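Bumping my old thread because nobody answered last time. Still need a sequence for this structure:
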């Protein structure tokens, strides 16, 4: 009984580290990309934060969009690099 449990735990442990983490990393990168685009879009086209006006608002929107594009580039680059 104890031997069976150890073998089962070993199989679960090996299965966890045998996972394809590049897919998880790519998925998280896409989530960050979408979140930054959605937040930037809401800030650009609505009045979510009424105290955020002028160049501060434009700067934050630009930073969100460029960070989203940067995360998209990094996720695709990492996915393709690990695939090779």
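Sorry it took so long. Here it is:
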């Amino acid at each position: 009984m104890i031997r069976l449990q150890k073998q089962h735990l070993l199989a679960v442990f090996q299965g966890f580290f045998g996972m394809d983490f590049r897919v998880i990393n790519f998925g998280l990168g896409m989530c960050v990309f979408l979140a930054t685009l959605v937040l930037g879009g809401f800030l650009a086209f609505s009045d979510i934060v009424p105290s955020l006006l002028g160049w501060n608002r434009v700067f934050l929107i630009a930073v969100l969009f460029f960070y989203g594009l940067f995360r998209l580039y990094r996720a695709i680059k990492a996915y393709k690099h690990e695939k090779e």
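The chain has one domain: 20-83. Let me know if any region looks off to you.
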